# Entry
Amino acid sequence: MFDLFLAVENSALGIYIRESAWGFAMALALHAIGMATSVGVVLLINFRILGVVKQVPVMAHTALFGTAWLGFVINFLSGVALYSSHASKYSYEWIFILKLSLLALGGLFMKFTMDAYRSKPEQFKVKAFSVICISCWLGAVITGRLMAYFYSA
Amino acid sequence: MAINDILDMIRVSPIGEFMRSGFWQWPLMQNLHFIGLCLLFGPLLAIDLRVLGVCRFIPMKGALSLIPMILGAFVLNLLTGIMFFFGDPVRFYYNFSFQWKMALIVLAGINALWFWLGEHAKLSSLADGEQANFQAKIIAGLSLAMWLGVVTFGRLIPYLE
# Structure
């Protein structure tokens, strides 16, 4: 596995992001924009489901899912770029692995929440899933931001 | 009093000392600042994309009532932002990226005021699926562009000094 991570790190993309003047900074800026877009929509919809904000019907909010996916794609691509720059190190950082796990869980629980809402909006499961979903996404933001502090380069 | 004296007073203030007094202050404020950004962006996208016609079937009146959530998130980020500034005022004050970020926030504020005074009342009665007027769309487009600029310059602060 380590050889594979090294190969990623020494790919053209990995070298560019790591060694060019603006590669890493630009990927980070895109990653912040994608985060604001995707997590912004996810939090808003979950706040609506939990009743924190009530003005817009839940199903009307789903019009924003396309935009959330766009933010997710921006973050997938910029995330791959950032990862490739230090693949052999990030791959072994517990905080990075935790972040990816929280992202996967957050995505799954967004789907579980919406599926449960569509089948029966008032059932308890909806809000329980929604709380888990919010926690996972906030956790992903926090562990992502903390990578700069726990990254033992 | 010269600007550097003021910056130094800010630096040695209790808040400034607090921000530099331990490991966790900075990352804690950064995390709150990022969460505040996400909280601000959700309702901002809902309103601006509705006005632009991308998400035409979000009820306009309901979307506009999300404005307090935007203001709340902005206050959170203003407060955490002030904490950063007090922690390292000289660095931020002379930082090119920080200066642009602040300028864009002021412009976005003026733009939001223009929206509130000029369009808010008209838009409240917009039917679901109905297109907003051209001027409202210009404001919404500017709003999105400016806030994306704020995020970009904010994230580039450590790289543009």
Chain B is about 80% helix and 0% strand. Chain B touches chain A at residues 27, 30-31, 34-35, 37-46, 49, 54-55, 57-59, 61-63, 65-66, 69, 148, 151-152, 154-156, 159 (CB under 8 Å).
